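Run log, item B.
One chain of 288 residues. Sequence copied directly from the ordering sheet:
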Amino acid sequence: MDPLHEKKLAQRQDTAVAAGPSAAGAKPSAIKAGLRSMNYEEGRRALSLRDGATAGAGGKSMPVPGETPAGTLWAKDASGKDLPPSVVDISQGGLNDCFLMAAMAAIVNADPSAITKMIADNGDGTYTVTFKGVSTGFLGLGGPATVTVNLKFEVGKHANVASRRALWPLVIEKAYGEMKGKGTKTFDKGGNPGNAVDAMTGKGASPFDPRDKSEDEILAAFLAAKEKRRPATLLAPEKKDADATKKAMVARISGLYFWHAYAVIDVSKDKAALKLFNPWGRDHPNGD
């Protein structure tokens, strides 16, 4: 079963796309609660070290160029047949791109075929990724942007390979960075999951600030996104912008962090609750 976990509507931060930049503020469950509001980079580094990454002088990871992770573009069944992409294939690595991983999770949760249609296997070790929401040429008349990438990465500069050994999240991640023209530096300051959803699907964004909405309006927005199979993401606020209720909720709920993006993968009208996916691929709100 996909790791789906509930969070009450009182903490929701967005729908269909997230509003505002996502960059910082999460920790792995192994880190002491007192560091919950630590800098995002420190949190990601702590998670990497917990998972056995190599640390060099000063505790910094030592990137090695040219790594080709083991795996296949799509997960395989026992007979070697391709399996549809799933949120379980997503596990954020050392880059500051929770926004992109959350966007991918939201898209594949809404419509797995949207992901498979994005990537063409060229049969020579390269893959061409199409970004439907990014136009090229004069006045955007050149069609959607396409980026061709291989599977060479620096250690610590790509998403983790999850248990099914599917490499499609790494392929999209690399292509997104190259599409933006800065490679892995694209993610230095994070980003907006709504913009990432739009870039990949071309279906536009419908952001809103939940502080301007009633609980019924927020619930209705998420239910509409679910009914229309639209990707939905949530962006938790910075700690400095959170009121006492939100701070208490983050302190109480494991997996819920300030300044971190999530995919909204289900919504319950009866319970008035959301199910969230943490792009780390673990430590989901209200679950492991």
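Observations after the first pass:
- The first strand starts at residue 5 and ends at 8.
- Residues 98-110 form the longest helix (13 residues).
Flagged for discussion on Thursday.
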